[in-house]
Fold this protein.
Amino acid sequence: MFSLFFALLLGILAGTFTGIVPGVHINLVAVLLLSSGLMKTVPSLVLAVFVVAMAITHTFLDFIPSVFLGAPEPGTSLSVLPGHRFLLKGKGYAAVKLTVIGSYFGLLFALVLIPLFLVTVKAIYPFLSKTLVFVLLGIVALLILKERKKLLALVIFLLSGLLGLATLNLAPLKQPLLPLLSGLFGTSLLSLSFLRNVKLPKQGFKEIKLTKKETFKALGAGMVSSSLVAFLPGVGPAQAAIISTAFWKKITNKAFLVVLGSINTIVMLLSFLSLYLLGKPRTGAAVAVGKLLSWFSFNHLLMLAAVALVAGSIAVFITLWLAKRFALKLVQLNYKWLCFSVILFVVCLTIAISGLYGLLVLAVATSLGIATILLYVRKMHLMGCLLFPVIIQHLGGFS
Amino acid sequence: MNSSVSLKALKSIKIMALLKLSLITALIGITALVWLSLNLEPKLISISSINSELIDSWVKVKGSVVEQKQFEGLTLLNLRDDSGEIKVISRMALENLTSKQVEVIGKVVEYKGQIEIEATQIKYV
């Protein structure tokens, strides 16, 4: 029993590390774990507990680099811009807090709804897999039609879509999402901050008012959209974030950060449920758990749910504490040169992981990201990079 | 300024409520983990008590391997305890277990009208 708790604590520590260091993903740790000799000496359940604790903790922490450094991952990409706006108003901590509220209550919400998923998912799954692409198409159309500059929004969506399609099919490119998303959402914003010589104001810690109605609506939207994508292949938090916007005429930045937080954690939790119910893991962490556990009983599922609850609850403390440290330390640094350092770090990381092709993708994606900001088109349309390939793939499957 | 501001942030009622709730859920999760870790494996049952009502359930049985047949990617064992005998199918690579005492964890399945155990874990006792 003690080995399980030790694994839980180690997993939380590992998730904290992978969460706050840009570019280090839990999949990397999971692959290292599976290829190491640990599987022969450590009981598989202990390793599975480690992976789940790491994965859930990661989904809380990864908003910190996204908000404070503009270095996103698929689940946090859309948080960069609202997060950055909060940061420039001295409310970076509040932005992270909103994502923590989303992640934590999203986790509780999803845990409570597990019995409902157990009863319904197998029956709904075939219908869902056939119709989701049309839901995505409808929401993309709605998003573009809502935009004042409709034609520009469509052009940005298609350009990012083509870039995504090309990048994901570029065979020699490893980890294609790293340069693609970093460029579109991270380095583009940081480059402009660098060029505009943006200065960071003192970071405050005042509460941001969010009504109960707004919070519940955000959590509900996060829950519904996460449930639609969590059991299907090729779609994830990014697509869920786009679906969630259909619940609002105009979503506020505050509510959107809560939605993004909830989606990031709920999709991760449901990927373990997908492994149990359908035998289909939908995240790298769930793949690792599937390979580790030779038998996956209902009690195993309950145990992993309990691990997620403990890890998520502790991650609330860690994330808020670290976000406060970041907010206090960041203002002491020269923000212009911090932006430059992060850009340099992303460039080096891209070359190291994705090679020179990755650098090319990063350059193109950064240019497109900058153009989107300068044209005053919402950055959400850049999600075409992930939506367009999914839509093309699914429609291809129907023809 | 910074330390006083951060102190205020910590004392803020909403933050404290969130942290208190997180602490409570962490304790609930830990209690659940302790209970589940003690009850994770299925209870040991006798072979004769396995019937069609247990199909798709996880069971643990202990007994002696009286026969072992090897097929490509599949091993069939005949397992016997004091109460009876049952077929155990394994897709894992197994050494010769004939006449050895083993503990089997697996799912009860029906194959051609016969109740069998599809093993996911077999270990010496």
